[in-house]
Each structure stands twice: as structure tokens, then as C-alpha cells.
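Postdoc handover notes: sequence design on the structure in folder B. Input C-alpha cells:
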């Protein structure tokens, strides 16, 4: 039996831990699926066919920013960073979300990204000032740094490996998009790569999506962009981001569409890069693998349902979480969770209807990169599990070792 338990850190109106006035009832979401609200206002989504439970706990106005991750060791930590919308207060957990404490009193900042470096520094992007605010390990403000005008997209759009930090810019429309690099813990930054945006004549991309180090090949980094066919590209750096070459596959296997290179999250094994497409091709998003070469050897190996926004590794496999922005017959397609235990076989784990038929990015590519002790976190963009709410989802996985060939590693 497989069980997936989810805690939802959602906005409520007060700063205390009091509960909201939910009624005890059952709402049918889909065939065989029901959403139960008990008297303590915890929610549980039950699917008896696969033994999957989703329990939801309401907290204050917490929005997910970062589940601290080590690219050197390829593991997530116990540390989680959230913030309160409106105030900008930074909330910090050192025990995988069991408790949070306020570590910074905000000044109404709109935090849209966070990276905790190997030294423990915290770098947060404020979309109001368009500055990187750098805090010490103990959350004392060190300085504010000006780089470009655009933030990084999600948790796969900034990274650190062996003292090199790189992030790639994301904008709805721009004349130019840049890739920024720091080798002194965020003190200073330089532009190491640029592409013309849609507002430029002969634009090359819409924006960058991801930039990640290859943990199996030191000094190698991969950079990707989107969104239209010709804008979906991949580049490789072999010297920690100083120089870049395009490695987009002109002839991918399993499709003739270049949007197979469109993704907002990815992972690495010793033999391949893997991602879920941030696009629908012939009815579904695709599970893709790419063998390292110049150019990459890209191959479609599976179907994923809706557009993938977060790929979160767990043991030897991964969960793929989608968005809900594509309509069919006037209704948004279900958000989907797909699971692969081994990157060879993938199946639909659960689908969720859009409760109020409003488009949502669901996780918006902001989530844990890897589960830690069976726990991962995602941003929650609303409209999927709970009407009119936003916040941070805490997912807790419990797996029977006999189920689907899964084996616990912890």
C-alpha cells in the first residue's frame, strides 16, 4: 500500500494558531476521491485504490521559498524557508516544517526566491526593490545587492556548486535576459551569458527556465530556456559558467517537436538528465531523458499527463507535479501527480480537478528539489485542493516496501 500525506500551510486571517470556520463535510472531487474536513479542520484526501492519503493542516500566511538543498551532496536538509505575504516576515523551520519561527520582521517585501549557500548565508530576491537581500546564517541583514531587473524563476533556476553560484533571469517580456555568476558568496556578480528577449528585434528566447550544476561532472552546468518552439534551448558550460555552448538536440527521438526541450525542473543520474516537459505534445506532457553529448541525445520515454512544473526526487525515483493552465472544452485539465520508482516506468499517481476553474501554476516550479526523510514541500498556487487559499504544502510520504518495487533508504 502507498500513502502520501500532505500538510497544507495556508493563509488564515490571524497571526495566532487558531483555526478557521470550516464546516465538517465531504466534497466529491473525482470518481473514487473525496475531500474530508474533520472538526479540527484538517483535510484528508483519500483514494482507496492506491492507498494514498493527503492530510492538510492550516497555518498562517506562509508561502514557500526554499527547502535548503546541497548540490554537492545531492540531499535536502531539515531547513525550510517561507514568508508571510503582505508583511514580508521570514519564517524558518529547522525540523522539516514541524515548527516555524519568525527570524526576520519584514518591510512588506515580496520575496520571490531564496538560496541558502554552503556557508549558511541566505540570499532572497525582493520583487519590489529588485534587489538581492543577503542575510547571515543567523538572519542578520548583511547587505543589499543590485544585479539585473529580473528574478530567477524557481528552485531549479539558481544553484551553488563548489563555491560558484549561478542564476538565470526570468521575465514575462524583456529586451535581454542574463545569466549571473558569483564566486564570493553573493558579494559581487557578473553577467556570463545573455540572450535577446521578445522585446528585442530578432528575439532569441522568452526567458530562462533552469540552470543547474551536473553533480556527476564537476564544473559542468546546464542552462535552459523557453517558451515557443524556437525559444526552447539548452546550453552547457564546462568551466563553471564562464563559457556556454548550445547542446539542443535537433533530432530528438520520439517527437519532432522542439518543445521537448521546454522544462522548469530536472534531475541528473550518472548516465542521463531527466525532465518532464513544461508543454503538452500530442495530448500529454512527456517524460524525457537526455544522454550527455554535444548535442544532447534527447528521447521521449513516457507520458506524464498535464504540464510538469516540479520534479522532486525520492529514493531512486521522482514525483512529477503539474500545473493547471490548459483548457479543454472550457474546463482546465486536472492537475496531475505522476511517479516513477526508477525513471524506467512511470504512472499516474493522482489527479486533482480545478475546484473553481481558474488557471493555476499549482507549484509554480517552487518546491523541494529532493525529499528528505519522506518529506518535501511545494508552493501552493490555489484552486486545486482548496478554494480561495494559497500557501505552502508539506507532503509526507509513507510507502510499503512491497509496493511497486519501492525500497526505503532511510
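Designed sequence:
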Amino acid at each position: 500500500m502507498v500513502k502520501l500525506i500532505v500538510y497544507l500551510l495556508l493563509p488564515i486571517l490571524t497571526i495566532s494558531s487558531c483555526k478557521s470556520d470550516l464546516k465538517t463535510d465531504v466534497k466529491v472531487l473525482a470518481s473514487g476521491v473525496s475531500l474530508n474536513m474533520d472538526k479540527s479542520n484538517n483535510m484528508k484526501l483519500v483514494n482507496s485504490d492506491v492507498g494514498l492519503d493527503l492530510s492538510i493542516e492550516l497555518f498562517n500566511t506562509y508561502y514557500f521559498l526554499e527547502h535548503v538543498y546541497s548540490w554537492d551532496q545531492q540531499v535536502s536538509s531539515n531547513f525550510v524557508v517561507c514568508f508571510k505575504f503582505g508583511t514580508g516576515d521570514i519564517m524558518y523551520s529547522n525540523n522539516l516544517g514541524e515548527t516555524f519561527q519568525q527570524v526576520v520582521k519584514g518591510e512588506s517585501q515580496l520575496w520571490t526566491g531564496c538560496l541558502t549557500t554552503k556557508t549558511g548565508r541566505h540570499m532572497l530576491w525582493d520583487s519590489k526593490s529588485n534587489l538581492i537581500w543577503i542575510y547571515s546564517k543567523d538572519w542578520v541583514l548583511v547587505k543589499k545587492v543590485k544585479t539585473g531587473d529580473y528574478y530567477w524563476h524557481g528552485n531549479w533556476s539558481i544553484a551553488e556548486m563548489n563555491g560558484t553560484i549561478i542564476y538565470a533571469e526570468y521575465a514575462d517580456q524583456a529586451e535581454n535576459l542574463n545569466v549571473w555568476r558569483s564566486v564570493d558568496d553573493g558579494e559581487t556578480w557578473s553577467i556570463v551569458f545573455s540572450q535577446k528577449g521578445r522585446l528585442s528585434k530578432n528575439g532569441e528566447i522568452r526567458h530562462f527556465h533552469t540552470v543547474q550544476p551536473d553533480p556527476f561532472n564537476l564544473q559542468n552546468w546546464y542552462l535552459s530556456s523557453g517558451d515557443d518552439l524556437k525559444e526552447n534551448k539548452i546550453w552547457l558550460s564546462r568551466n563553471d559558467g564562464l563559457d556556454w555552448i548550445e547542446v539542443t538536440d535537433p533530432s530528438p527521438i520520439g517527437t519532432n517537436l522542439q518543445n521537448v526541450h521546454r522544462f522548469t525542473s530536472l534531475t541528473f543520474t550518472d548516465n542521463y538528465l531527466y525532465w518532464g516537459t513544461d508543454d503538452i505534445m500530442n495530448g500529454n506532457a512527456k517524460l524525457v531523458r537526455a544522454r550527455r553529448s554535444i548535442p544532447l541525445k534527447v528521447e521521449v520515454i513516457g507520458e506524464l499527463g498535464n504540464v510538469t512544473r516540479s520534479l522532486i526526487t525520492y529514493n531512486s525515483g521522482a514525483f512529477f507535479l503539474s500545473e493547471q493552465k490548459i483548457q479543454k472544452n472550457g474546463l482546465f485539465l486536472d492537475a496531475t501527480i505522476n511517479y516513477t520508482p526508477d525513471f524506467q516506468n512511470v504512472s499516474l499517481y493522482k489527479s486533482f480537478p480545478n475546484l473553481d476553474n481558474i488557471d493555476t501554476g499549482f507549484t509554480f516550479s517552487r518546491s523541494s528539489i529532493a525529499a528528505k526523510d519522506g518529506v518535501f514541500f511545494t508552493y501552493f498556487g490555489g484552486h486545486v485542493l482548496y478554494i480561495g487559499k494559497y500557501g505552502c504544502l508539506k507532503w509526507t510520504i509513507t510507502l510499503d516496501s512491497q509496493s511497486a518495487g519501492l525500497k526505503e533508504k532511510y
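Context for whoever picks this up: The chain has no helices and 33 strands. Don't rerun without checking with the PI first.
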